[in-house]
Each structure stands twice: as structure tokens, then as C-alpha cells.
Design a protein that fits this description.
Blueprint: E1 2-6, H1 27-40, E2 49-57, H2 65-78, E3 80-91, H3 98-107, E4 111-117, H4 121-127, H5 133-146, E5 150-157, H6 164-177, E6 181-186, H7 194-200, H8 209-225, E7 229-232, E8 235-237, H9 244-250, E9 256-258, E10 263-265, E11 269-273, H10 277-285, E12 290-295, H11 298-310, E13 316-317, H12 318-324, H13 327-342, E14 346-348, E15 352-355, H14 363-368
Parallel strand pairs: 1-2, 1-9, 2-3, 3-4, 4-5, 5-6
Antiparallel strand pairs: 6-8, 7-8, 10-11, 11-12, 13-15, 14-15
Helix pairs in contact: 1-2, 1-10, 6-8
The structure holds iron/sulfur cluster (SF4).
Amino acid sequence: MLYLHIPFCRQACHYCNFHFSTSMKYEKEMIQAMIKEMEYRRDYLEDKKLRSVYFGGGTPSILEDNLLGNIFEAIHRHFEVEDEAEITFEANPEDISQEKIEFWHSLGINRLSIGIQSFDQADLNWMNRIHNIQQSETALNLVDDFGKMEYSMDLIFGSETTTDEIWIENVKRTIRRKPAHISCYALTIEENTPLQHYVNKGQKKESPQEKIRTQFYQARMLLTEAGYDHYEISNYSLPGKNAVHNSSYWKSKSYLGIGPAAHSYNKKSRSWNFANNATYIKSIEENKTAEVSEQLSEQDQYNEFVMTRLRTKWGINKEELITNFERRFSDHFFQEVKTSIKAGFITENESTFALSEKSLIIADTVSSDLFY
Ligand code: SF4
């Protein structure tokens, strides 16, 4: 699994804490550095065959065509991409045109993840998104007309301007498009974001937890009624259309992350690249990549297993827990989970433990109670 982080955006969305720059100053140097990083980290993954390639960011759709072409040329030079591989490209509505769709598809991109966020203009303005509703509709029409690329739509709920009525309409309007995949994220106020600054100054308001909870379950109800499978806390798909890439994260598969701020994981260790464009480029020139690299203890691996598996509808498989971890971890789990079951947070069947309906919204708390 390969992840490429494209660290540029046209405008800063106020809630965003991903790494990006609104200056395109280092665009060429960045892509050269990412290609070089791919070259010397090609052996990081044991399995050279890629089942999924994911372009995230930042805004991948901002990239110049020739630079994107260079990245694809490097991917094929250093890795073997399976014929059926899922190749996802995050695209924002304002960048989507017929020419771009055709070009992206000619490179092998077969899935777009489109940052719609809301169909309400006041909501988009509150988030400081650069696009408007008309651009979203045009972009979706173009992808639908093209017909050869699946797509996922990203939506955000729980902002100050998102009333329950607006949210329900956003979800219904999304369902009418019948995308293969839908991600619904709760708006959170992250450290060092413009949103946090405005909230601290009293210029914007944080929504009460009750509103976030209500909107989470409104989406769940509407989407599951429309035939979507709620397979992970924030993700829904039509049958058979789970995202290969995201599912791999939750199933603890190895991945190589290329680009500034990208994370990598190979079951035994985890590393982070520098989250600064100039520093990242310089570090690659000096043949260094990771800012931090850490070996994962069995305790870390167990905690991560509990946290990621519980986020999914498949939950924790008892057999897998017993086989993969030392006895003290499974003993701990089986002891502690009794309290969670009694409280109605976890359900148990013959082979698995999973979150109950009411605990989906408090997944992190429920998992941390089971940590070792
Ligand atoms: S939400 Fe996406 S488009 Fe907006 S600033 Fe963050 S990475 Fe860029």
C-alpha cells in the first residue's frame, strides 16, 4: 500500500490540521524529492505488489499534469502495481474538469475522493472552503457523465452553521448521486487551526456534543436505509465497495508514506516524515527522511489493534487476538471487556467483539478502556 502526500492547497480551510502550504513555491522540487524518496524507500514494504495507491494531502488535484505524470512514471519504475489495484486521488470540486478527469484516468486513477463537505453555502463559507455549491454539482455531473471512475464524497457535520435540517439535506442530496462510497466526518476543533483561534476569540462557536451525536446517527439512519454499509465509524459504502486503502489501515496492513508529514508503518515500526516542505526537501537531498521513527512494543501493537479493529463493523476477532498476542494481552482483554459488555458498549458473538450501536459515537473512549 502506497500513500503520497501532496502538501499544497489553494486556500486554508479553517478546521484543517493536515500539513499543507498555500504557496506553490516548491512544487517542482517537492515532486522531485518525493520521487527520490520513493526510489530509496522502495524496499520498505515486504510485498512489492501494490494493491492500493492513495494520493492525499493537501490537494492532489492542484498538481500540474506533467508533475503528476512524473510521479506515476516513478511509481511504475519502483513498484509493481496490481492490475486491479485501487488508485485513489483526492480532488476538490474547483479542480475537476472533463480534461482533468480524462487525464487522471489515462494515468490509471480509478477512484476519486471528492471534498464536497456540504451543499450549503453558509456552511462552506464558515469552513472557509474555496469552492461553491455550483462547482460541486458541476464536478459531480462531469464524473458521472465520464462514468469510468468510482468516487467517494466527503461530508462534514457538526459545524456551527450545520443545522439538523441542513445536514439531513446534505446526506439526502449525496444519496441521490449514488456514489460508491461516502465519508462523514464530525467537525473537530484541532490545535493550532484558524478555527481554534476564532473559537478562542469568541468569533465562532463550538457545537455541543449532543448536536454532533444527533447528526452522526441521522446520517447512519439515512445511509443504511439507502443501502449503504456502515463499515467504519466515518465510512459508508455500497455493497462490495469498501475502500481498499482505508480498510488496510484498519486491518493493520503495512504502508509506505511518501512526502512531507507522511506516516509509514510496517507492523514493527512506525515513522513520520518532516511536516515542513522546505525541511522535507532538504532532508531528502541529504538522504534522510523520517523525522521520527519508533519501534512498536507488543503493548503498542495490542493497543493499536484494539483501537483500529473496534472502529470497524468487523470488530475484534477472538482467534486473531489469541494468536497474535502474548497471553497476558488476551487475558487482559477478556477480563476488561466484561465491564464494557455489561455497560452495553460492546456486543459479543461466537467469534468477535464489536462496538454496540450506542457506543459508535464514543469509540475512542470504549477502546481506551481496553488498552493494556
Ligand atoms: S481540508 Fe483539504 S483542501 Fe482544505 S486546507 Fe485541509 S487539506 Fe487543504
